Each structure stands twice: as C-alpha cells, then as structure tokens.
Amino acid sequence: MDKNRLKEIVLEQKESFQRDFEVVQRKIPKKIIESAKITVVTGIRRCGKSTLLRQIAKFYNSYNYINFEDERLLDFHFGDFNLLLEVFMELNEDAEAFFFDEIQNISGWERFCRRLFTDGHKLFVTGSNANLLSSEIATSLTGRNIHTELFPFSFREFLEYKGVKLKETILTKDRAKLSRMLEEYITFGGFPEILKSGDYQELNQLYQDILIKDLIVRLQIRDVKDFRELSLYLLSNVAKKISFNNLKNLLNFSSASKVKNYVDALGEAFLFFTVSKYDPSVKKQIRNEKKIYCIDSGLINATAFRFSREEGRILENIVFLELKRRGKEIFYEEDKTECDFLIKEGLNITAAIQVSVSLADEATRQREINGLLDAMKKYDLPDGLLLTKGAAEDLLIEERRIKIMPAWAFLLEG
C-alpha cells in the first residue's frame, strides 16, 4: 500500500473512533485491563466489539487504532504490516496500547501481533469469526492471549438502553412493564446498531452480510444455494433437535459430513450454537442429535419463515443465550421425558432448567414439570427452575423444590 494513503486512513479512523457515542456501557472484565497478554474480543458482526474497544481505550492516555473492515484496506496484506507499524510510530511513538479491529481479515496477522507482544506492547484485537481463536492462536499465540466473547445486548442491557430504571423492590406495575419489555426484546433482539436506528429490516441485511462476507466469500463456498437453504432451515427451527444425516436427506445434500462442515462454519461466525444431549460418554454426545440455537431473537424473527415462529422456542433461545453469557457449560436431557437445559460444573450436573411460555394448559404444565422433575431425580438435584413468561410459584414435589418464575426475573439475575 501507499504509505501516505495508509497514514490518511489511520488518522481518519482514529478521529472517528475517538468521537463520543451515546452507548450502553458494556461490562469490561477486570482481567482485560490488568493483564499484559493480548486481549482477543470475539463475537458476531455488529454486536458492539468496536464500542467495547472505545470503552477500553479510555483507560489509556495514548494508543494506536486501525479497523481492517474499511474497504480502503482491501489491498492491505501481510507484507504491509511493517508499513503500518512505521505509520503508527510516526504518528504516535509513545502509544501505550494497540487496537486492531476485525484483524482476521488479514492472513498472517497473528505473527505480527506476536512480534509486537514480544516487544512489550499491550494489544487488543477483535474478530467476528471463531477461527480467530482456533488455528491462528493455537499455533502462534498460545499462552500469550486472554479471550472474551461479546454478545448482542442482554435483557438487562436492553432495558438500560431503553432507559428503564430497575428498582430494588419490583411492584405489580413494574412486573407488567418488564413483561412488556421482554415481549419487545423477544421481537427485536439486542443488536445495538439495530436498536439505535429503529430499522429492523436492517437485521435481514446483517444476516446476508454474515453469510456472504464472513462465510461464503471467506470460505469460498461453491454450493451457495444449499448453504443458504441450510442456514434458513436452522433459523426456522431454533431450539429443535437436528441430526446431520436427517438434514442431508431433508435438504438433499451429498453427504452428512458436508452438512456438519456447513453447520460448523455457521457456528464459527457466531450465528448458531449447538447443544449436545448429556451423556457421560463423549462419543455418545457426539453421535446424539444436537439442539440448535441462534445468536439473536430479532434475527430469527426478521429472517426465518414467519409461520414457524413459536414463542416458546424463541424464549428458550433467549434463556440459552443468557446461560452462554454467564459462561455455563450447557447440555439438554432426553430420556422418557425432556428437560431443556442441564448445567455442568466440573464433573457434575449442578442445575436443571425448563422453559415454557405458559403453564395455563394442564397437560403442558404436567409435561414441563415432569420433564424437569425426572432430570432432578436422575442427577440428584434438590432444586429445579421452570421459567415462563409470567407465572410465579414454588412447588415441593417428592421433597424436591421447583421454582417457577418469570423469564424476565431470571434474565435480570447476576
């Protein structure tokens, strides 16, 4: 690249980066600021990674910044990193930290970062593909990095963005408002830029950008139609069980392994997550059907087939995402009955959680309670949690306690 052109881009980007934005303050893990290691922030496109970097930058008096998503950097390649370093040194030789946004776009980035790290610099890098944490870091940055995964807004952050003040004592009128806000959150999701613009049709464009820019182009996927159909099917079937072989037959793929590779790719872009059925045998976990979840409920509603929308499955998806935010190891249980979530800590199952929109129907109530109770018995759990859109009740069944609570109350915990 031309050095003067590169310098111009760096100056313009930093000026934009330093502008004050009215944003919800994301929680910054203490380890990020205190550690001398390279900080890697990953998450789906437009979930707020750059905004988080702005917050972190306020801890430093001087820093260098570049965003590789800029279309003016399409010709930037590994050989230009030395030129970039020269530009940084000329503009800000005494920088206390380096910020690299969407760095996975440049092949070989990890070697450049390792050199800066070895020279004693503090680095922050972001990426919207999980591959950033796998092959590159495994080979070049092992032991030199710490990682944090960013999601779209949680329900608590959503309320903060909407200006809803949470009270220590929640009255009946507050419960009604929180229920209404949960409905809005279920419908529109938590992507910060989408909430700011209010144009929810942008969610569909975001989805297309992820498929095309982060996956189809980067992975050079040739069967674009098959890939799109698979992704749309998954979006339309969140919180349901899938098997790669069944998907192969349903969507006419050439092999189950191809389906698996595509599902893995969608997971690398943080678009989908899979959850295994719990079994002490890892081999059986791998063979069993997976449950599929999506990164954002708004994305589901904006993109999936509308007739497939079921509130219960989307509510379950939101609970799953909250458990992921809390760093839980998640499984599902299926034997004679089903339980939506098992939480594993160390070698033990420590919690069982069931999700249901409503328990008004007696058959539904018994099915959900029995599924939870069976899981509690199987893993010898004294307590279980059943989340709904509004019900609140405490049950004692066979000396085991089941707490029924509104999903919004669970989402606001911790």
Q: How would you describe this structure to a colleague?
A:
- The chain is an alpha/beta fold.
- Helix content is 44%, strand content 19%.
- It has 18 helices and 14 strands.
- The chain has a nine-stranded mixed sheet with strand order 6-8-7-9-10-11-12-14-13, sandwiched between helices. The chain has a five-stranded parallel sheet with strand order 2-3-4-1-5, with helices on both faces.
- It starts with a helix and ends with a helix.
- The model has no long low-confidence stretch (mean pLDDT 92).
Major β-sheet strand ordering:
6-8-7-9-10-11-12-14-13
Outline type: globular
Major sheet: size, sense and barrel closure?
9 strands, mixed
Low-confidence stretches at least 5 residues in length (pLDDT < 50)? none
Class by helix and strand content?
Answer: alpha/beta
Mean pLDDT: 92
Helix content: 40-55%
Proportion of strand residues: 15-25%
Number of discrete helical segments: 18
Whole-angstrom Rg = 23 Å
Terminus-to-terminus distance = 48 Å
User: Care to count the β-strands?
Assistant: 14
